[in-house]
């Protein structure tokens, strides 16, 4: 299989979505959160998470109602919604992930329970966001460096046809991932 470098259709990237002062304030808010382990396929990941709006269970693949997004994070959700061109309330689930140095996330697509729009904000350390998709004999690949304070949107093929991953991060990194839901919930 040969690799072809191709930017995924539906990927939007915005450096400096928040400024230095906003990042410092957000990092202080995130540092105060109580994070939970991620257990997948019997393994505990190095990264830890906190979920708002809805909690996604990595074992049962189910969504359940969770506590509301803290007020301190609502402004950044509005900014991310504007980047994606959606109403802030449509971003019903928020995943806050804490990546200690050398932690990773393997190849995946966001779960089918989530809708067509995923918006991320990267804070702290820079990282690579890698993409892959195979079509016939060709493997299509793309890498994007997410700088601190940058945002990205996955829609269309970038959301549904491509997998993404993050190789080991060099230093502490947080990400806020805002997601629409596949079907409305009450």
Automatic annotation (TrEMBL):
A Pfam family hit: 2OG-FeII_Oxy_2
Domain of life: Bacteria
Annotated InterPro entries: AlkB-like (IPR027450), AlkB-like_sf (IPR037151), ALKBH4 (IPR032857), Oxoglu/Fe-dep_dioxygenase_dom (IPR005123)
Residue intervals of the Fe2OG dioxygenase domain: 90-182
Gene Ontology molecular function, alphabetical: demethylase activity; dioxygenase activity
BP-aspect Gene Ontology terms: demethylation
Keyword tags: Dioxygenase, Oxidoreductase
SUPFAM superfamilies from the UniProt entry: Clavaminate synthase-like
Protein known as: Alkylated DNA repair dioxygenase AlkB
Organism lineage string: Bacteria, Bacillati, Actinomycetota, Actinomycetes, Micromonosporales
């Amino acid at each position: 299989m040969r690799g072809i470098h191709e930017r995924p259709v539906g990927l939007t990237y915005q450096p400096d979505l928040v400024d230095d002062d906003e990042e410092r304030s957000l990092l202080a808010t995130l540092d105060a959160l109580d994070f939970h382990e991620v257990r997948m396929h019997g393994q505990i990941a190095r990264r830890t998470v906190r979920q708002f709006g809805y909690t996604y269970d990595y074992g049962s693949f189910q969504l359940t109602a969770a506590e509301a997004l803290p007020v301190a994070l609502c402004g950044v959700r509005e900014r991310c919604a504007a980047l994606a061109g959606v109403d802030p309330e449509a971003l019903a689930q928020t995943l806050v992930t804490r990546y200690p140095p050398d932690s990773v996330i393997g190849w995946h697509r966001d779960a089918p329970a989530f809708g067509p729009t995923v918006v991320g904000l990267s804070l702290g350390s820079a990282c690579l966001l890698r993409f892959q998709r195979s079509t016939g004999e060709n493997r299509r690949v793309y890498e994007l460096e997410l700088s601190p304070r940058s945002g990205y949107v996955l829609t269309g093929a970038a959301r549904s046809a491509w997998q993404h991953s993050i190789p080991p991060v060099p230093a502490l990194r947080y990400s806020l991932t805002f997601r629409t839901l596949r079907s409305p919930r009450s």
